[in-house]
Each structure stands twice: as structure tokens, then as C-alpha cells.
Amino acid sequence: xxxxxxxxxxxxxxxxxxxxxxxxxxxxxxxxxxxxxxxxxxxxxxxxxxxxxxxxxxxxxxxxxxxxxxxxxxxxxxxxxxxxxxxxxxxxxxxxxxxxxxxxxxxxxxxxxxxxxxxxxxxxxxxxxxxxxxxxxxxxxxxxxxxxxxxxxxxxxxxxxxxxxxxxxxxxxxxxxxxxxxxxxxxxxxxxxxxxxxxxxxxxxxxxxxxxxxxxxxxxxxxxxxxxxxxxxxxxxxxxxxxxxxxxxxxxxxxxxxxxxxxxxxxxxxxxxxxxxxxxxxxxxxxxxxxxxxxxxxxxxxxxxxxxxxxxxxxxxxxxxxxxxxxxxxxxxxxxxxxxxxxxxxxxxxxxxxxxxxxxxxxxxxxxxxxxxxxxxxxxxxxxxxxxxxxxxxxxxxxxxxxxxxxxxxxxxxxxxxxxx
Length: 421
Description:
The protein is an alpha+beta fold. Helix content is 18%, strand content 34%.
């Protein structure tokens, strides 16, 4: 036990993945005028000199040549002097080539019947103190041993029999793993399954009776809702840190390391080590897993953190628990307006703007200009309603849709397929 504690106190930090985008430079204008109370003497005529002109032109050419050379060198050189004033999404302390390696942590079998449940009932709103007392016992420190270094992150217990959720990048390249409970006691963790693209991974410890966190429905969040984060910023010394903020945006598409992630944006303070920790609503429910923050070397970037929403996590984690990998998400094959239109008294529908050729919707006979009233027996009034229904379905499932065409109600049945390229 003492040996593990000593190891965690000298960690180099958690692994980083980077996303860069250019930062606009500042525009400066200047205006000069004579000091008050003083006048500028009239200019005296001077004899023109060609020699002075030639010296000026040669000097200007030299300066421009040097400047151009510096710019080209800084752009092409590996270090890139100014780094072109770039942003990145920070997963940890420093970029580590070992972080992208294969996970070789000893495994625990999938298909054992375990699932992650998400509650739709929220209960009474809690104070920050009540939320911390309720959720912090479910938050763990995750330590993955890499080749010659280590990675530190956060995890959330989601089942009392020892299942823990964290970020995939926390474990990437790991050979073995330990977790520390809020009591400080450490245990060996086994690797169940993970998905790099969605940045989620499941661990298992051989314990029962653990305090499991309650997961709530992130689809019920609205911009401005109060949220909290608990994690281990900057490693183990500050573990169990609580920060708060609001939901800054929902369904934010973020391009990270060659993939698009649909995330919750928050201004709750997140730092290296918070990865894999919970984003918590005002009712003490976990509604997201914190994964990245935006930062920059050359400008102040504050309050830009992102979390994977629980509405997506439920399907992804249950796929990992059952199959050991993420199953393909099906496609309806329609593009609809974001909000519904009123068709009659108490009748709302989503207008179909486009039908993908040879898709499930196309084969079922849905046309551009139709209005979708319901899907799988549930009414839809926004594109998000349709997305929530699709998240629970798999390729091959059959779904009944009620549509409105030329003032008439119709029912069609879609056999869901993979997205059509």
C-alpha cells in the first residue's frame, strides 16, 4: 500500500491529446500629434540627394528579406517559433507518444449482464454541500502505469459491484491500473472494454457494496443550468476538488484529433486530471463525463470545458459491457428542421427537408415535404426528440413513424440501416 501511495505522488501527469486552431491577432491603430503647448517649427527646404535615397532602398530591402526569411523558417521548422498562436484541447499535462499505445491492462470479461442505468426523475434540487457529500464517495483516482511513466485521471463508480467509468485516453498505453477511493485506499483495476473514438472506458475492481453514483438524463439540460465537477486537478495532491459553473451550450460539435464529438460545454473549472470525472446537475446526478478543456499558450482561455453527455454514454457503455465494442448507430435517412411546425390544433410535426437515397426513410416511402409526427410511438417536436429515439436503436430494428402528408396522417415502417455514404 505504501509503495503505491509513493508512486502516485511523483506522477508526471495525465496524457494529452491536442487539437489546434488559429487565433486571430490583435489589430492596433496609432495616432500621434504634437504635445500641447508646443508647436512644430516649419520644415526647412533641403537639397535632394540620390545617395540618401539609394541607402534607404537598400536598407529597406535587407529588412524585408530578413523578415521574410524569419517567417518562412518559423513556419516550416519543427518548433515553429510562435507556434502560429494556436489553441488546443487539453487532455492533461503534456503530449506523450506513449499515450496512443494499445491498452494491455489485465482484462475482465464482458457479457456479464452489467448495465449502466440513467434516471429521468430528478428529485429535489440540492445545495453544493449536499451534492459533494452525495457524489464524492463515488469518484475515484485512476492511475494507469505506462511504459516508463504513468497517467492520472478521474473515474466514476456507476455500479456498487465495482464497475467504474473513465476516459479512454486516461488508460491509453497502460499496462496495469490501480484506483484510489475517496478514503485513500487503493485497489487493482481490470480493464473491461473501451472505445477510443468516443473516449470512454470501463474498469472493474473486485469489490462490492461501493457507493455508486446516480446518472441523470443530459437531454433534460438547458443552457444556464447549474452544474458541478469533481475530480483530481493536477494529479493526486488535489483529489476530490469540487468546482461549479453552468451549462454554456448543449450538443456542441467539437472536432478533436480527427473526429467529431457531440459534447456539453460548461464553464465549470476543469484542469489536467479532471478527465473521466463527473459533470453533475443540481439534483446530484451525473449528466456527463468530463473529457477536454480549451487552453492556449498565447491568450487567456477561461471557462471552456466539455463533457460527454449521459444520453450518449448510456448506449455506448452498455454496448461495451455487452459486446466489448460499440455497435454501429443506425440512420433514419432524413434531414429535418430543428424545431417543429404547427399543422393543426395540438398537432406538431418536423418538416422533412431531405431524404437520403436508398436509406431507411427512402425505402419506407417518406418524401421531402412530409412532416414527422411521431417515431417509435413517441411524439416529436424537435430534431433532438428524433435524435433521442435513434440513440436507443440498432441497425436492423424496425421503427414505425407517423407522418403528415397533404393534410392526411400516414404510418410507415422503417427498417434501420447503417448510414448511407
